[in-house]
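[User] Could I get a sequence and structure tokens?

[Assistant]
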Amino acid sequence: MRFSLFALFALGLSSVALAQPADKKPTDDEKKSIDLVVKAGGKAEIDPRLPAEARVSAKFETATNATLTALKKAAHVGAVDAFDASACTDVGFVALKQLPHLRKLTLGKSAMSGPSVAALAQCKELRVLYVPGSGLNDTELATLKKLALLENLDVADNPITDRGMTSLKSLERLQVLYLAKTNITDTGLMELKSLDGLRALYVGGTKVTGPAAEKFADEMPNLRQVKR
């Protein structure tokens, strides 16, 4: 799963990159957001690839509800990476919707519930979302279809099925999709054929067969291979 994370970072950051000057010097307002992140136990830096109004990238090895709620006042945060969010509950996850320009969100070892997912679905600027092994089911996955700007999505190691793929196919801007260790089959894979912008698809540890994966890749204009 760490491979999935690092690959997502590489592809995700390229997709959220905008035509910003390579200036990593924080403004006075950005310094306030950086100070809030550090006070909450994290590390922060300016990422010029994020939008001008939210260039602060926050990283936490371990996050708690207090960590995430503290970010509500850090309006210039555009990326949050919490590598271990196992201590977080709905209280912390719901607070994330207060970040108006959040583009990238990583929640490792998290436990999602209906209210948590509903809150994430209100982060309408998200381009990258990483929630593997979070207990996400088909019903909760359907809530994420509100994130119309998503380009990179990792929902690996979750109990989602072919039924959930009918929700994902509405995310027309998806370029990278991780479905490893889910319960999808060849039927679910074919539901994704409308995602003609896909460049990388990972289905290792699923019931997707080799022939179906090859056929799918052959028929997708930007996808070279389905990773199994």
User: Anything to note?
Assistant: DSSP finds nine helices and nine strands in the chain. The longest helix spans residues 2-16. Residues 114 and 140 are 6 Å apart (CA to CA).
